[in-house]
Specification:
Elements lengths: L11 E5 L2 E5 L6 E2 L4 H25 L15 H8 L2
Antiparallel strand pairs: 1-2, 2-3
């Protein structure tokens, strides 16, 4: 069991996308062991490829009445944030 470096409380192990991460119950800090960040980044990269394919399909279709400002492209921090929700 790992203690939070900020709060010094025991961190809880949580499985996200088949990767075990440690999360502090108080400050919500996240601790990644060796290789876990690489695993998460690999999954994000795979998701981004799928997202890029979706983007191409979207622009290939001709939607004249669709307001492009309604959509917001996710950045890398948004994608990583989705993992910890």
């Amino acid at each position: 069991m790992v203690n939070c470096p900020v709060c010094d409380l025991p961190m809880h192990e949580v499985r996200k996308n088949n990767v075990m991460i440690d999360v502090c119950p108080k400050c919500k800090g996240v601790w990644l062991d060796r290789g876990e960040l690489n695993q998460l980044m690999k999954q994000v990269g795979e998701y981004r490829k799928d997202y890029a394919d979706y983007e191409r399909r979207y622009y290939e279709d001709d939607y004249d009445d669709y307001n492009i400002r309604r959509r917001r492209k996710k950045g890398i921090f948004d994608l990583l944030g989705d993992l910890f929700d």
